[in-house]
Amino acid sequence: MKLFLVRHAHALADEQDAQRPLSARGREVTRLAAAFFRANGLLTAVHAVWHSPLRRARETAELLVKELGLDAPLVETAGLLPSDDPAVMADRLEHMDRSVMIVGHEPHLSALATLLVRSKVKPVAFDLRKGAVLALETAGGRHKKSDRARWRVCWHFSPELLPGGGN
Predict the structure, then answer these.
(1) Strand (E) or helix (H) holding 104
(2) For residue 153, which phi and psi values (nearest 5 degrees)?
(3) How far is CA 63 from CA 5, 29, 46, 92, in A?
(4) Where are the domains of the chain?
(5) What is the pTM of this model?
(6) Mean per-residue pLDDT over the chain, rounded
(7) CATH number, span 2-161
(8) Which residues does 17 contact at the CB level (< 8 Å), separation at least 6?
């Protein structure tokens, strides 16, 4: 199983936090990133897209699904807010057997990735910039302390790698 952790794109700063929409730059960078993923055969086998209830995550997820031409349901998912316990999502992923894209926030996504790869949350091993994607896959076997599935990093994309720089 593959897991794609996506931090929402750049959002406007002048609205209430939960209702901040993506900025024009955030939308453009997401479109450019999607074109890069298409051209390189990345993010093609996604069976579901989970996103947090916050507007900026939902809009990022919707735009990626549209631009990538994914035939995957968009699902607003509890447990993806910035301050949520990453162990809750790690436990939920234990029951998945198909590839999932999760669109959420920092510091939650980095803590979740660290937990999946290292079986502990601290020290955090990742730092996802706005619009970044971290691709993980199950690595076989289980962590001794937590008995959770082992995961490994496949690749990491940061929008700063795009021509023009990203967010």
Answers:
(1) strand 100-104
(2) -80, 130
(3) 15, 11, 14, 25
(4) 2-161
(5) 0.95
(6) 94
(7) 3.40.50.1240
(8) 54
